[in-house]
Task: structure prediction
Amino acid sequence: MARVLIVEDEKHLAEGLRFNLEAEGYEVTLASDGETALDLIQQEGRSFEAIVLDVMLPGKDGFEVAQVLRTAGCYIPILMLTARSRPEDVLRGFEAGADDYLPKPFELRILIARLSGLLRRREWFRLTEDLAAQTPDDKPPGDIFHFSGKSIDFNSLVLRAGERVVQLTLMEADLLRFLVMHQGEVVSRRQILEDVWDLKEDTDTRAIDNFVVRLRRYIEDDPSTPRHLITIRGVGYRFVAEPGQ
Result:
């Protein structure tokens, strides 16, 4: 039985979600504000397999809660609920560490489908890691990309650079995968918005730059002088796997 934490300050909505998710077989815990949610996850040692997180909360909002969890190394899948459906707000949620988003009002069946998708991905990552631990010498290359002494495992969302190991969020991994698939090509910010995050409305494409800055910290030896993730001024970016070759 999957354990889900719902963080929602609208009591009628929270209770309705609990009723329907429990009917689907989930074990549900409610929190009405961000501080309570963080206490449940961090201090009380409660184990959850997914979080349904509203943005508009008293005290710490959903963006802050997601950021605190990711900074602390907590990678429980987060489905963010937001009445702010502008692309800028969606990107802000992704930057904070959300794995998926759903604008309000939403259809219950869509929320259940999105939640199920996150849980399936989590289970797949767990099985992949278990298999690797059991048969480390026979592990197939699978969905792993090697470049310049570094590697990205797109199954487990792990990036390795020397002795440093970075746990990626799903959105960071999706962006890296897109850049890798188009390595050597110039990809525009608009192309990233549409093809990676399916955001087709007008938005400030400079929001992508925040993601790029973060990825450079992971993959560049000197983020201030990038050699892998190159800015093409006025257009977008180009990924170079092996600089100098």
